[in-house]
């Protein structure tokens, strides 16, 4: 039996499919995004040394950019049309121009850098080089190193205070935090903390810092007015991430081996609440109104929304790709972007509705990890 191809039907199906894609894109397009503005996600792929640039309005990958081995610490410069990142094995920072999707600079910073931070005005970048025990300050306009100092042993991360005056560095092998003058990198104090310090969160008023231990179920509280340790708080599990409420009142800590979320009251320096969430919650992002915390669970292949006020899991767990970890909300909170590290995908979730839903999956490079979102 012979079949005749109905070309009119094929054309109609293709047209309807195109309209459906357009409708989804329009629904996802954030209200703040005026004509001519772009909304992109940039994903560092540790398996092939590339960055995937994904258009979050058209819901597609638009470029794969080689940046160098083991890309990490990817951040969007707050004022320049640039994405910065590090090559931990190459020992340099790289600068990506988002208008051309080209790497325009590589800056040698020292061996084994893992994270970077920007001043609020985007004029300076700060990098701790773990393998060379140094911290550098980079002028973002000239892309030149303007200051370099010795830190403690294996400095893990450098974080600048909200007022731009202090730079805090966690020294993993010394179990200390170095407090530096951000302008000159002059040492102001060295404070002992819990063993193997890693991540740092600083309160908006600059009064205190919270520092995680990489090997103990502890978080240290440092008084930045007197430069002393206030307490080592016992947690029910190893802290995997730190998410600070914008007003500074609470600190949210996903913990995989505790299978839940720890909540620290930053005024009283106490662990106030614990929520059992799933198999292995590891990262999270908070909506701008502080109402919902989205927590990724790589072992369960899903994202769990948590209602902050009621301390309950909100409507529906969201199934995504394999091993979701890093997650971020776009400005305004319309879209939740999640990196699926095992399935090499970027999950796009419509978040500004009562029951958030997975919209699509965008392919990335091999073993994606870090994520930055940029409007330009």
Summarize the structure.
By secondary structure, the protein is mostly beta strands.
Number of strands: 33
The largest pleated sheet is described as:
5 strands, antiparallel
Q: What share of residues is helical?
A: under 10%
Count every helix, treating DSSP H or I runs of 4 or more residues as helices.
1
Describe the structure.
The protein is mainly β and 376 residues long. It has a domain at 47-63 and 277-376: YVTN repeat-like/Quinoprotein amine dehydrogenase (Methylamine Dehydrogenase, Chain H, 7 Propeller), CATH 2.130.10.10. Helix content is 6%, strand content 51%. The protein contains one helix and 33 strands. The protein has one helix at residues 7-28, and strands at 39-45, 50-55, 60-66, 71-76, 82-87, 92-97, 102-108, 113-118, 124-129, 134-139, 144-150, 155-160, 166-171, 176-181, 187-192, 197-202, 208-213, 218-223, 228-234, 243-244, 250-255, 260-265, 270-276, 283-286, 292-297, 302-307, 312-313, 318-319, 324-329, 335-340, 345-350, 357-363, 368-375. Strands 24, 25, 26, 27 and 28 form a five-stranded antiparallel beta sheet that branches. A four-stranded antiparallel beta sheet has the order 3-2-1-33, with no helix packed on it. Strands 4-5-6-7 form a four-stranded antiparallel beta sheet, with no helix packed on it. Strand 30 and strand 31 form a beta hairpin. It is globular. The model has no long low-confidence stretch (mean pLDDT 92).
């Amino acid at each position: 039996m012979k079949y005749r191809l109905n070309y009119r039907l094929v054309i109609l199906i293709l047209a309807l499919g195109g309209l459906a894609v357009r409708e989804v894109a329009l629904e996802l397009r954030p209200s703040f995004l005026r004509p001519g503005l772009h909304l992109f996600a940039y994903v560092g792929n540790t398996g092939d040394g590339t960055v995937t640039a994904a258009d979050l309005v058209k819901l597609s990958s638009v470029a794969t950019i080689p940046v160098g081995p083991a890309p990490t610490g990817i951040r969007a410069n707050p004022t320049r049309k640039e994405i910065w990142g590090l090559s931990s094995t190459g020992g340099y920072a790289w600068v990506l121009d988002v208008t051309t999707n080209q790497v325009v600079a590589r800056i040698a910073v020292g061996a084994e850098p893992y994270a970077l931070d920007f001043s609020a005005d985007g004029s300076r970048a700060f990098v701790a080089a773990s393998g060379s025990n140094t911290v550098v300050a980079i002028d973002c306009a000239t892309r030149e190193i303007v200051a370099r100092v010795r830190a403690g042993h294996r400095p893990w991360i450098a974080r600048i205070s909200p007022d731009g005056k202090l730079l805090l560095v966690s020294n993993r092998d010394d179990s200390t935090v170095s407090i530096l003058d951000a302008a000159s990198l002059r040492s102001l104090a060295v404070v002992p903390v819990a063993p193997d310090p890693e991540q740092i969160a600083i309160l908006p008023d600059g009064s205190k810092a919270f520092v995680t231990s990489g090997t103990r179920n502890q978080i240290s509280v440092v008084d930045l007015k007197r430069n002393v340790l206030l307490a080592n708080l016992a947690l029910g599990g190893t802290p995997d991430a730190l998410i600070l409420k914008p007003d500074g009142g609470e600190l949210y800590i996903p913990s995989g081996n505790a299978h839940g979320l720890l909540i620290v009251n930053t005024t009283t320096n106490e662990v106030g609440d614990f929520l059992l969430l799933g198999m292995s919650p590891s990262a999270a992002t908070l909506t701008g109104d502080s109402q919902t915390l989205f927590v990724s669970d790589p072992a369960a292949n899903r994202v769990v929304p948590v209602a902050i006020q009621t301390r309950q899991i909100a409507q529906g767990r969201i199934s995504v790709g394999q091993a979701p970890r890093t997650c971020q909300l776009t400005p305004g909170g319309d879209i939740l972007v999640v990196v699926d590290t095992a399935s090499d995908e970027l999950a796009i979730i419509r978040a500004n509705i009562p029951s958030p839903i997975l919209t699509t999956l965008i392919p990335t490079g091999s073993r994606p990890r870090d994520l930055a979102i940029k409007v330009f």
